[in-house]
Design goal:
Blueprint lengths: L4 H22 L6 H5 L1 E5 L2 E5 L9 H5 L15 H24 L1 H4 L1
Antiparallel strand pairs: 1-2
Helix pairs in contact: 1-4
Length: 109
């Protein structure tokens, strides 16, 4: 199902907030560099939260827990993007309902 542009943009912003909340809660020695590279990116397939991909910090997959180094070290990752995506699935209806009410408030009254 294709999401309306406004809902997609709002959902991406909401997910970005959750990712940075997780960073602030879980990072032990934050420098701010990695967080400064995480942003909403508008692609041809829609809005997505990303860390710069191949052009971003090379340790992004390791921090997320999906890098090859996670298999050989005790650190299993923060799973910030995965956790934010799961939270978004639970809240997307709420976001959509809020946007609907804002857009059609006059017609509903």
């Amino acid at each position: 199902m294709e999401l309306p542009e406004e809902l997609e943009e709002e959902a991406a912003d909401w997910a970005l907030e959750r990712v940075t909340d997780i960073f602030h809660a879980d990072f032990r020695m934050p420098t701010g560099f990695y967080e400064s590279n995480v942003r909403v990116h508008n692609t041809s397939s829609g809005h997505e939260v990303w860390d710069g991909g191949l052009a971003g910090p090379v340790y992004g997959p390791w921090l997320e827990g999906v890098g090859s180094r996670n298999n050989t070290t005790r650190f299993k990752g923060y799973h910030a993007f995965r956790r934010a995506a799961q939270a978004l699935e639970l809240h997307i209806d709420e976001i959509g309902n809020r946007l609907f009410r804002l857009r059609y408030r006059n017609r509903l009254e």
